[in-house]
Amino acid sequence: xxxxxxxxxxxxxxxxxxxxxxxxxxxxxxxxxxxxISTPSIYKKVIQLxxxxxxxxxxxxxxxxxxxxxxxxxxTGAKEFENLMNEIASQPIHFFLDFNxxxxxxxxxxxxxxxxxxxxxxxxxxxxxxxxxxxxxxxxGAPDIPETGMEVLRQQYILAQSIETWxxxxxxxxxxxx
Length: 178
Description:
Elements: H1 2-14, H2 19-28, H3 39-51, E1 55-60, E2 68-73, H4 75-90, H5 100-104, H6 111-139, H7 147-175
Antiparallel strand pairs: 1-2
């Protein structure tokens, strides 16, 4: 959950926003593609962070629109943001790839089913790579996209390329043995 805290606190460090606007920003930046975070978790997280005194809300009414809470970082929240940045940056790097559960169990399937599973994984890697290519092209040079956000997209693209290369190598080693 520290990751979600860091995402929300980081967004609010830049500007005060409603929970809805935070959620829209997470969607726009595709943060949920590279960090486990969901729309409902953002709303829950905002409430938790306010209860902890890390953020505070200010109720505003604009024109005929209903009132809404605009959240901003407290001094305690700014310190927690820095603590989380250092804590998470210091953690070992782990790659959790759900498809590895399939890979370790491939030998329990007949060869045709193994090929089918690998082709599905390969197709998903290609789909991800294509999506990232399009996203990078669409957002490159956009003034509202921070360079660090672009670097995460490039990182994800490189990982997708690596998985694509690795799966081709795995297929070759499994199915061209004599």
